[in-house]
Amino acid sequence: MKKTLPSLIAFLLLTCSAIPAQAVENGIDATGSQFVVPIKVQTSPTTAGSCSGALISPFIVVTAGHCVLDSNGLVTTKVYVGVAGSSLQSVTTADIVESIKITSTFQNGVNSTVGDDDLAFITLKKPQEMPLPVLLASESELAAIKTVGGQLKLIGYGRYGDNSEEQVTYPKSYTGSYSQVPSVYSNSAFIESSAGNACAGDSGSPILSITATQVTLIGINTGATRNKYCSKLQNGKYYALFTLVGRYANLAFSSASYTINSINQQYNKSLGELDSAKSQLTIAKASLTGVSDQLTLAQGLLDTANLNKVDLQTQLDATKKTNLALTAKLKKICAVKPKPKGC
């Protein structure tokens, strides 16, 4: 997770061998949560980073824009998204994504700090399970929640604590409120808490409003003023900056359209393969019918041959019997004396 004003120091940890560990200081275990996914990013041949992401549909994940940039500040193609709620260590190169759409106005801040419109929509190659729907907050919903300082929840894969060097495992969450403290960015706001603390690796974490009837994605965590790895305590509160995701519904629609087109292509391909299989089945059935007809003919010929064989055997037996009788009669005739001529 990146830093925001005033310290302006990057929060996304990029190393060759170590990746930020665990999630949310003073948080609650969120293993198996359907709302957050682990993300790994190859930023260069020798460096990698980790972030969190929000699953908003079986094929679409929202994360921070700076989470999908390479070492040159360009959108990288080597982004890998694991199964929602699973361990960050379970993410492999087989989890590479299909496409990434980033806000056209986003630019990394000075010294790799947070910039405005820090948001990216990722399309997955394969869908994930999503038992509960997630809605994107409208402007009226945002205003209503902010007015009352409504309760929000952050779920992420950041470090376990400000000085923690533990290896990454599963996500954690903490509850805060929609802060009245204004952001210097027009499309961002703060979640504040007196206990929970966002840390490095929590960039891209979903900021959710959860009621008895629905789950609403308010924003995507992008950064905070930090101590070492986690948010700095300021006037008894911890603050984490998030981008208001509902204002970028066009990107969500674009990603959804891409997904729909991909599904349609796969569907059409499947239809073509099904038609081909049906044709092959028809040919096979015709061949089977031909073989069956030939088998019936052959069986008829075999039955006829067997009948002929029986007839021939009967004739042969009768001939043998006659031959034996004639032989016996000839012996009797030749037994008299004088022997008849020809014996």
The share of residues in helices is 25-40%
Category by helix and strand content:
alpha+beta
* Portion in strands: 15-25%
Give the SSE string.
EEEEEEEEEHEEEEEEH
What is the total number of structural domains?
1
| General shape | rod-shaped
| CATH architecture group name | Beta Barrel
Describe the structure.
By secondary structure, the protein is an alpha+beta fold. The protein has one domain (14-257): Thrombin, subunit H, CATH 2.40.10. Helix content is 28%, strand content 24%. It contains two helices and 15 strands. The protein has helices at residues 139-147, 249-334, and strands spanning 14-15, 28-29, 36-44, 47-57, 60-63, 79-81, 99-102, 120-123, 134-136, 151-156, 172-178, 188-193, 206-210, 215-223, 238-244. Strands 1, 3, 4, 5, 6, 7 and 8 form a seven-stranded antiparallel sheet that branches. Strand 3 (36-44) and strand 4 form a beta hairpin. It is rod-shaped. Mean pLDDT is 83; it is low at 5-23.
Summarize it.
The protein has helices at residues 139-147, 249-334, and strands at residues 14-15, 28-29, 36-44, 47-57, 60-63, 79-81, 99-102, 120-123, 134-136, 151-156, 172-178, 188-193, 206-210, 215-223, 238-244. With 343 residues, the chain is α+β, with helices and mostly antiparallel strands.
Topology diagram in text:
Blueprint: E1 14-15, E2 28-29, E3 36-44, E4 47-57, E5 60-63, E6 79-81, E7 99-102, E8 120-123, E9 134-136, H1 139-147, E10 151-156, E11 172-178, E12 188-193, E13 206-210, E14 215-223, E15 238-244, H2 249-334
Parallel strand pairs: 9-14
Antiparallel strand pairs: 1-4, 2-11, 3-4, 3-6, 4-5, 5-8, 7-8, 10-11, 10-13, 11-12, 12-15, 13-14, 14-15
